[in-house]
TrEMBL record:
Biased composition (Acidic residues): 365-410
Region (Disordered): 365-417
Name listed for the protein in its UniProt record: Lipoprotein
Organism domain of life: Bacteria
């Protein structure tokens, strides 16, 4: 009986411990999920509404490890993680760009060592950016395929919340950026290249109008960059222009950024200038900015500015100047009046022609008068010098004659020996 009692006591203790720890684990998981849902509902919207990309970048670097730690607690940090990895990737892309600009300047100046060092730094930062963006894409793809029971790129999930759709968009873009930055790093992260094709198909699941023209713009860029992808598809350039019109109207210019990236990849200066001007004409006073997605619009602007800085530095050695989206180093600044301004200034110049001609004639007459006066002065000086010279010669001649006469008189006065 005592053995049976001890056995029962042991089983009871084990069950108590198991229930206790299971309860603690459940509490931790629930607490982590509650904190994440609170952040998604009450912290993420204000962050998306601000326009300080540098602050979002710093937040991504600082908060991503803390948010990802909740995964070990059994919570689901996917939505927050995608947003933070996107921001952290932006930080690394900025550093990679700065290193690339340093490389371009050094190469232009013929500084080989500096250029090599800058290129190494650029590749390192590109690898960091690719790693962060690929991590965001992976956690998004894994969670979305499990949650919605579909395969990314083969079918579409049934998403009801706008935040879920926004995370889907950013997760897809992170995957595409990861491919690009991995190429720039020399394949350091080994991001699968087939992500581009998955993103092209997956973007068809989003409403193009609701998301500022970005889904179709993304697809059009991939059609241009991926060999064979544009077969049977609409004209990529026209699709991009249509998407930019939507982006400008809805106040988020991600299509402009994608257009600039595609133009840069083409290496065609005319297309690059067209893309930069398209963005430059879409911003400024009176232009729409979506109040709920200011951060996304600002990040798009930074992407375009990166293309502009790179293009300017390649050609001039410095970053884009003020107004450099619309007017380039080899062009005359636009006066904003178009042909009217040219005609007006031509007319003003024509009215000023008589006055200018009269002034020119007066100047020429003055110059001629001064020249004549100078010649007269020189002539007088020459005559004066000649007169003085003749006088000196006469004096010298008289002096010689006097000396000869004196010597003769002296000779006559001496007695003969």
């Amino acid at each position: 009986m005592p053995k049976v009692q001890k056995l029962c006591q042991g089983v009871a203790l084990a069950m108590t411990v198991a229930v206790t720890f299971t309860g603690c684990s459940h509490i931790i998981k629930s607490g982590a999920n509650i904190a994440l849902r609170f952040s998604e509902n009450h912290i993420v919207p204000p962050i998306l509404a601000m326009d300080d990309a540098d602050m979002a970048c710093a937040s991504g670097n600082a908060l991503t490890p803390a948010i990802m730690s909740t995964k070990d607690m059994g919570a689901d940090p996917t939505k927050m993680a995608v947003l933070l990895y996107t921001s952290a990737g932006l930080c690394a892309e900025t550093e990679a760009l700065n290193a690339e600009l340093r490389y371009l300047r050094a190469a232009k100046a013929g500084n080989v060592a500096e250029a090599q060092d800058a290129r190494i730094e650029q590749k390192r930062w590109a690898a960091i950016a690719a790693h962060r963006q690929y991590a965001g894409y992976q956690i998004f793809a894994e969670r979305w395929e499990t949650k919605y029971k579909f395969r990314l790129g083969d079918s579409c999930p049934t998403m009801k919340k706008d935040l879920d759709k926004t995370v889907y968009l950013l997760g897809m873009l992170s995957g595409l950026q990861a491919v690009t930055n991995d190429i720039n790093s020399g394949g350091e992260v080994e991001v699968p290249k087939d992500i581009a094709a998955i993103v092209e198909r997956g973007m068809a699941c989003l409403d193009n109008e609701q998301f500022w023209g970005t889904p179709n713009a993304t697809r059009a860029v991939i059609w241009q960059l991926l060999p064979g992808a544009e077969e049977g598809k609409p004209d990529p350039q026209q699709t991009l222009r249509d998407s930019m019109a939507i982006g400008e109207r809805t106040g988020v210019r991600l299509p402009h950024a994608l257009y600039a990236v595609a133009a840069q990849a083409s290496g065609d200066p005319a297309r690059i200038r067209e893309a930069l001007r398209a963005y430059g004409n879409s911003i400024g006073e009176g232009k729409a900015v979506n109040p709920d997605y200011r951060l996304v619009n600002t990040m798009a602007g930074l992407m375009v500015r990166s293309v502009a800085d790179r293009y300017w530095t390649e050609n001039t050695g410095v970053r884009m100047a003020d107004g450099g989206f619309n007017t380039f180093w080899d062009e005359t600044p636009d006066d904003g009046l178009g042909d009217l301004g040219a005609d007006l200034f031509d007319a003003l110049d024509a009215d000023n022609v008589p006055a200018v001609e009269a002034e020119t004639e007066a100047v020429e007459e003055t110059v001629e008068a001064e020249a004549v006066e100078e010649q007269a002065t020189e002539s007088e000086a020459t005559e004066s010098e000649a007169t003085e010279s003749q006088a000196e010669e006469a004096v010298e001649s008289e002096t010689v004659e006097e000396v000869v006469e004196d010597e003769a008189v002296e000779s006559d006065s001496q007695p003969a020996e």
